């Protein structure tokens, strides 16, 4: 796809370093979330699906089985194990070691991506991830920040502020770990310029990867109720394309773009409708980058 000629995507980055395609395989390791049980907060982020917490959250399969089951049909021979569901550092370090090592000892797994919150990465956990990196594994710490504005973080009940992100990134970088920061475009109360300010703050602090995501309003979330009552609105496709393209153009080429949009399936997805199809929005972002310049292009102009 044309988009990938104009961004430094994760696939390109991995292929250049491994010499072949490396794919991410998603794991549900039955973690929960400290923003639900009172450790960081209660009720969870307002965009998060409450229903998913009322039933058993984990997979019935072991980590090894989940990874092996995901491989068929993939056009790759090597893989990263992506601990994606909920807060994947929310356990004692010895339990984390057991889970991560089950993944790393599965055939053809060359590394880990660990999705978590900035306030849930104690030093011992970072030390463990750094240990795997020193052993030669590919390691990405994926931090959900969403916004750098404390006012927004309070509004969406994240249970942490920007200073928690600064602290997590500082300690991770002291250990040489790579950070992929997750940002949501279209959060309530935010203007497009707020997303660009958040990007500036994140880039100033330093990060190695970015994941951009439109706000999804999903069934079972607190936002679903707000949306039904007309208190919040979903972002329009054209607005998302505009902000995402500008963010990509302001991101230096050496920052790896793990994702520039995201989809969700109906009926879980309530709004925006366009988020149930990944290609139109990616094509529009690509057209913008072709016409105006790709990743990092606005940094070249003075
Ligand atoms: S989005 Fe993540 S941090 Fe927020 S409530 Fe859901 S699982 Fe917890």
Automatic annotation (TrEMBL):
The prosthetic group or cofactor this protein requires is:
[4Fe-4S] cluster
Keyword 4Fe-4S annotated = yes
Residue ranges annotated for the Radical SAM core domain, each copy included: 17-252
Q: Does the keyword Cell wall biogenesis/degradation apply?
A: no
Q: Name one Pfam family in it.
A: Radical_SAM_C
Please indicate which superkingdom the organism of origin belongs to.
Bacteria
InterPro entries registered for this protein in UniProt: ELP3, Elp3/MiaA/NifB-like_rSAM, Radical_SAM_C, rSAM, rSAM_horseshoe, rSAM_sf, YhcC-like
**Entry-linked SUPFAM superfamilies:** Radical SAM enzymes
Record keywords: 4Fe-4S, Iron, Iron-sulfur, Metal-binding, S-adenosyl-L-methionine
Query: Recorded GO terms, molecular function?
Result: 4 iron, 4 sulfur cluster binding; catalytic activity; metal ion binding
The record's section on PROSITE patterns has: RADICAL_SAM
**Xref: SMART domains:** Elp3 (SM00729)
Q: Return the NCBIfam families for the record.
A: TIGR01212 family radical SAM protein
- How is this protein named in the record? TIGR01212 family radical SAM protein
Give the source species.
Amphritea balenae
């Amino acid at each position: 796809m044309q988009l990938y000629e104009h961004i430094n995507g994760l696939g390109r980055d991995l292929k250049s370093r491994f010499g072949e395609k490396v794919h991410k395989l998603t794991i549900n390791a039955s973690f929960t979330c400290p923003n639900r049980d009172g450790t960081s907060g209660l009720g969870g982020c307002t965009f998060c699906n409450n229903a998913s917490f009322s039933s058993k959250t984990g997979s019935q399969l072991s980590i090894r089985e989940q990874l092996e089951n995901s491989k068929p049909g993939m056009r790759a021979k090597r893989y990263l194990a992506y601990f994606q569901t909920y807060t994947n550092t929310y356990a004692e370090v010895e339990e984390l070691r057991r889970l991560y090592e089950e993944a790393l000892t599965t055939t053809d797994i060359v590394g880990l991506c660990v999705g978590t919150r900035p306030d849930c990465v104690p030093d011992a956990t970072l030390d463990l991830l750094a240990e795997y990196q020193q052993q030669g594994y590919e390691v990405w710490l994926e931090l959900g920040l969403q916004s750098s504005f404390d006012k927004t973080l309070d509004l969406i009940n994240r249970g942490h502020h920007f200073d928690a992100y600064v602290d997590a990134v500082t300690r991770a970088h002291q250990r040489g770990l790579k950070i992929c920061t997750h940002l949501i475009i279209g959060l309530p109360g935010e203007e497009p310029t707020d997303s660009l300010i958040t990007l500036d703050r994140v880039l100033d602090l330093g990060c190695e990867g970015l994941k951009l995501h439109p706000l999804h309003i999903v069934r079972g979330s607190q936002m679903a109720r707000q949306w039904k009552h007309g208190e919040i609105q979903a972002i329009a496709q054209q607005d998302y394309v505009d902000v995402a393209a500008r963010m990509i153009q302001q991101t230096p080429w050496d920052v790896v773009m793990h994702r520039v949009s995201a989809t969700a399936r109906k009926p879980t997805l309530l709004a925006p409708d366009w988020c149930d199809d990944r290609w139109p929005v990616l094509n529009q972002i690509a057209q913008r980058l072709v016409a105006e310049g790709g990743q990092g292009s606005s940094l070249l102009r003075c």
